[in-house]
Amino acid sequence: MSTAKIALWDKLRDDIAELTPNLQKLLRSGLDRGFMTEDEILSEVDDIDRQVELLEKFYELSDKLSIRIETIEDILIKEMRETQAQSKLDKVTLYETTHTINDKQYNDFIKL
I need a surface site. Which of 15, 21, 81, 103 has the fewest CB within 10 A? Predict the structure, then answer.
């Protein structure tokens, strides 16, 4: 972890101490990685209705520490883009098949 992140963590130590140990651990992990997922946060909270203030403090600290929180929608969009990129690559490989007839090369368009 960089010295700037350590200094910021130390500055916010009193606010971080108000969180549960699991949320503190998750916050530290998110600081190291630079992001955390919404699912990770929700799995660490026992009763969302009773811990709204705690969650608000957690999100505020995440923002102050510049930790990006990926939502379910962000993850799905990322996976969709990866799938689209992969499908485009698969289409490109179809054109790599060539046949030579009378010393001329032709692409195999039948596989399309």
Answer: 103
pTM listed for this prediction:
0.65
Q: Give per-residue pLDDT as tens, 82-106.
A: 888 776 655 554 445 555 566 665 5
Q: Cα dihedral angle (38, 44, 49, 55), rounded to 10 degrees?
A: -60
Q: CA-CA distance, 40 to 56, in Å (whole number)?
A: 15
Q: 75 near 65, Cβ under 8 Å?
A: no
- Alpha-carbon distance of 112 to 91, in angstroms, equals 8
Helices and strands counted in the chain (H then E) = 6, 4
Determine how β-strand 98-101 pairs with β-strand 68-70.
unpaired
Q: Is 14 within 8 Å of 48 (Cβ atoms)?
A: no
